[in-house]
Amino acid sequence: MAVGYLTWRRLFGVIGALLVILLITLVAAAAVGPVRIDLWRALDPTVGGSPDALILFRARIPRVLLAAVVGGALATAGTALQALLRNPLADPHLVGISGGAALAGVCALAFAPPVFGRSIIVPAAAFLGALVSIWLVVRLALVGGRIESYALLLIGVIYNAFTGALLMFINTIVDFFQAHGILFWLMGSVANQDYDLIAALAIYTLAGLGLLLLRARDLDCLSLGDARAAELGVAVERARWQIFLAAALLVGAVVSVSGMIGFVGLVVPHVMRLLVGADHRLLLPVSYLAGAIFLVCADTAARTVLGATEIPVGVVTALAGAPVFAYLLRRDRRSLGTQ
């Protein structure tokens, strides 16, 4: 049975293969670290509370699981934004969504009354910050009722600089402990989280993926342009803001936990689009899985390359993503020059 040109066999075959690769990646990442552990001893139920078990189950496994969830959410949001904005350079970090979410989350973290629980107020603030940011950037990028790609990029860069300046200003007026938390937001991290939070975030991000899958056909149509999408029966404005809302929910949720981790939503969707095509019924789930694999590998490199000295994972993703961004920008300029 086929879904358009996409067969169920291909759909489940590709997703199944990526699930196997993700599982292997998770196991390998959990086994690797600056401290060597005996996996058999860590998994032996007769040896309770051994140092190997504590390192494996309280430090490494939560970290690799959180990296998978965060990477999947960022890649999924990037996939949706690239189709919606018809721009292969669109990324939650580059267009300012992550910066806006981080700024709102930091403000909540630093200034919210203690009566509000951090687990409630910070994610809510990050979501609102992401939603306001994407609305503002898109509105400013509209020229004659159309979104100009380079205007969007320029405004996104300016907005990122603006939110970064505000974050640094807040960092100068808060106490030492709050300043440390803000530094965490700026560099990005997937360390020190518990299983309950990871499970809740996984459910939340999978729900966001499900919402976008319901709009997969609309994304296919919107990637052709608003006029063409309207001709194909898409309620353009309604679909656009529903997709923006889902992307903001995904970005706000993960930024509230991991801080700002850039370029995942740029690199992964672009590579997956080259490998599996532009049909979002397949592209969205494979981007989620590939984003999970990518960030788990990046975080593993961040915590092992320099031994006991850990590199912020955002540095690793930027080193991997910046050359891809430069390549896409150069290719886009060439294509415009030949038209």
| CATH class categorisation | Mainly Alpha
Can you tell me the overall shape? globular
Report strand order across the widest sheet: 1-2
Count of helix runs: 14
The rounded distance between the terminal residues' Cα atoms is: 40 Å
Mean pLDDT: 85
Kindly identify the CATH topology.
ABC transporter involved in vitamin B12 uptake, BtuC
Unreliably modeled segments: none
Total beta strand runs: 4
The CATH homologous superfamily is called ABC transporter involved in vitamin B12 uptake, BtuC
The Rg value, from CA coordinates, equals 20 Å
* Total domains: 1
Structural class: mainly alpha
Could you explain how this protein is built, in words?
The chain is an all-alpha fold and 339 residues long. The chain has one domain: ABC transporter involved in vitamin B12 uptake, BtuC (Orthogonal Bundle). The chain is built from 14 helices and 4 strands. It has a two-stranded antiparallel sheet. Strand 3 (142-143) and strand 4 form a beta hairpin. Helix 3 (51-84) packs parallel to helix 8, helix 4 packs antiparallel against helix 7 (176-187) and helix 4 (97-111) crosses helix 11 (236-258). The longest helix has 34 residues, at 51-84. It is globular and about 65 Å long. The two termini are 40 Å apart. The model has no long low-confidence stretch (mean pLDDT 85).
